[in-house]
Amino acid sequence: MKQGAQGSAEPGIRGGVRVPAQPGREDVDRGYRQRQRERRADEAETAGPAHDTAVRGEHTHSEPAPVRPARPVVQRASVRGQVLAALRTALVSGELRPGEVYSAPVLAERFGVSATPVREAMQQLTLEGAVEVVPNRGFRVVERDRRELAELAEVRALIEVPVMLRLARTVPAERWAELRPLAEATVRAASSGCRATYAESDRAFHRAVLSLAGNDQLVRIAEDLHRRAQWPLVGATPVGRARADLIADAHEHTALLDALIAGDEEVVRALVEEHFTGAR
């Protein structure tokens, strides 16, 4: 059988049947290359131009930046949060005294951390009004008087009293009963005489009550005001007297809960107003 000019075998007759020409080597190679080009074109069309250039190792400004391993920001934020919580406890307990200046390096040594998370926590307390910056020295604990405490109590009452009265009319008794453990926890915390422990349980109870209103912004603002009201005054009450005040305050929680369960709005109003008027 003779070969054509392009390397293909010419067709012929075998046993009375026409046999098609068989492809030569060049035809096979040409067909293979054509199929490869078509396959790459299909892949590029499916994946888009960014993928096509990425396959070739080319950089385009439209493609996203390479993903790099995340820095341990979670761990750092956790340290800062722990330091902030510890500083808040020290403020409430009176360990950080009003009017005193504290440097970040000294506090960092106390907590066993670097100065950076301490500075960051102190900056947060500056925003909250607990401390103020003293250039080249550190942070001074703000000195608060009874007038400021009374102003905070008035604002808290303006926010929380109407909400609690509305909740007294709408929340069923069994839902209020679920808060009993929190109210009792405030009594136990008060009995310990630790202002920091009581402050935490006190906020937890009020937060749970206000959460029933379904307004996250309300809860956040009220808790911020509550936290500010818990900072000690200049010349704080002696420990024995402070413990008695805490216990009296805690029992107001249980009495308020009893009134809410009973649905007695008048008693609720009187207790809540008294609670804020006599805020310690």
Give a description of the structure:
With 280 residues, this protein is mainly alpha-helical. It is 66% helix and 6% strand. The chain has a three-stranded antiparallel sheet with strand order 3-5-4. Strands 1-2 form a two-stranded antiparallel sheet. A hairpin with a 2-residue loop joins strand 1 and strand 2. The longest helix has 25 residues, at 146-170. It is flat.
Features:
two-stranded antiparallel ribbon; 66% helix; 5 strands; disordered N terminus; 280 residues; 12 helices
Write the layout of secondary structure elements.
Layout: E1 12-14, E2 17-19, H1 25-47, H2 49-55, H3 73-93, E3 101-102, H4 104-111, H5 115-128, E4 131-134, E5 138-141, H6 146-170, H7 173-177, H8 180-192, H9 195-211, H10 216-229, H11 239-262, H12 265-277
Antiparallel strand pairs: 1-2, 3-5, 4-5
Helix pairs in contact: 1-2, 3-5, 3-9, 4-5, 6-10, 6-12, 8-9, 8-11, 9-10, 9-11, 11-12
Question: In what range is the share of β-strand residues?
Answer: 5-15%
Task: Bin the helical content.
Answer: 55-70%
Based on CA atoms alone, the radius of gyration comes out at 37 Å
Backbone shape: flat
Total strand segments: 5
Sketch the topology as an H/E string, one letter per element.
Answer: EEHHHEHHEEHHHHHHH
The major pleated sheet works out as:
3 strands, antiparallel
Low-confidence stretches: 1-20, 44-75
Number of helices: 12
Instruction: Give the spatial strand order of the biggest sheet.
Output: 3-5-4
Mean pLDDT across all residues, rounded?
A: 78
Distance between the termini: 113 Å
Structural class: mainly alpha
